[in-house]
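Why do we bother with a discrete structure alphabet at all? Because it lets us treat a fold like text: something you can write down, compare, and reason about line by line. To make this less abstract, here is a complete entry for FtsK domain-containing protein. Read it the way you would read a sentence in a foreign language you are learning: slowly, and without expecting to understand everything at once.
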Amino acid sequence: MANVLRLVKMLLSLPRRRVNGVASLLTGWWLVRLLWRLKALVAATLVVVFAYSTWGWVGLILVAVVPPLASLTWRAVHPQSHGWFVNRLLARHRLRHLYRARWDAVMVACNLHRPLPGGDHLTPRLVTVSLASVGDVLHVRLLDGQAPADFTRQADELAHAFGVPDVRVVAAGPGRVELVLVERDVLAEPVILDDVPAVTDLRRVRFAIGEDGRWRTRDYANIAAEVGGGVPGSGKTAGETSLACGLIQNPAVQYVVIDGKGGEDWSWITPRAAAYCAEDENLEAVLAVVEQVHGLMRHRLKTQKRERGGANFWNLPLDPAHPAVFVVVDEVQTFTDPKGMDNDTKQLAFQITARLSALVKKGRSAGIITRLLTQKPTSDALPTAIRDNASVRTAWRVVTDDAAEAILGPVVRRSDITPVDIGEEMRGVAVVANAAGRLERVRFPYVDEHTAEAIATRVADLRRELTDFGTPTTDAGEGASGETAGVKA
Ligand SMILES: Nc1ncnc2c1ncn2[C@@H]1O[C@H](COP(=O)(O)OP(=O)(O)OP(=O)(O)O)[C@@H](O)[C@H]1O
């Protein structure tokens, strides 16, 4: 009895951790914990033992051959789900064995912990890891009182601690942050598509890939107009082409293209375009097309509520009988910059600019989205009345800060990210404002004109005349008729 009392006394005098250790040793709990930690190994061993004891050597051969064969078959039949599963396994493995093991030490070393009285400390919680083409993404729950900016300040230290060239910090919602461990610049390589999926939801239209390797989307229900600019050959037309290839596959979308270059950059869309005009000199033809779209806008604004039950196009169901109309004006400076024009042409240019300005200002609730592209992003080429009403701006490579500001606005002067830094060889890379209003670099995918033409031909039966939707016919110029070269309306 005295011995038992002595033992109890001794246990009570031991520190709590050591008591737990002794209890675990005596009850065998340590064995359960060890087996649980090594559960994958234990399960594999049990399968091998079972196979061998049941089928002998044949069982062992089956165990060695069946899983890789099953995996290969799965990958061949459904590569997406196979890739997803493998990535998940890999991400879990890295979370447990690579990142969680070092997380506390890294947080302390980078001063992102919070010391507690008594020498202990709290660290932000590493919730999970996902794999992106740019590198691993760590999903972190912040400590109370922390903000993503605390991590942004320590991005350099984090990059050194994790042994990667760069760490990008992305706010991922209240109390959450994502650390993107950048191992490669995904924007350095072109993204070439040999087909483009149809856009089914105009509120989530994929348009480019961000620096984390993920697609960026736009909500076209909230966009009246876009402006885009960049030096010749920077990728404006190609960027628009890849976007159009997805949109034209939607029966509730019609496309109008006016190409101020006067070339064949957009000829691929002819089979599917409700109106196509590649005139750089016959401004009457251009005005005729713009008048048609403007007429459709006015018609919708005046009749939509009475005929369809709502004044705002985007509150009504999307319907091929009432399609969203995308109007692309490439090299818009051809029509808006009056320098060097004779008086008659100036008059036409003035009318075109006035109509475009009205479309930009009032088109949204009529379901008309105007997209203006220019290689000359100055106030002559893009009148401020138009530019300032365009909520989405895309700057491909430009060479001056003034040009960058002309497209993106004054925000670019305060940002580390600027289209002036885009290298000449990085065609298709642009700077856009993300949903939070911050500038970011993206890469537009590239679809060659033959692929684009094949897509347009495939869905040519979705093409409708603008006059089918209540647009008054126009006699503004002979160039507006379908017979005139380069014009189809
Ligand atoms: N996203 C891209 N990925 C890879 N290459 C691209 C991309 N975009 C454009 N390019 C390359 O750059 C070339 C020029 O592109 P594009 O015609 O779109 O330039 P642009 O800015 O519209 O020029 P311009 O103002 O002279 O019309 C393309 O023919 C293609 O070779």
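What the structure line is telling us, in plain words: Residues 190, 230, 232-238, 261, 375, 396, 427-428, 444, 446 surround adenosine-5'-triphosphate (CB under 6 Å). The mean pLDDT is 87.
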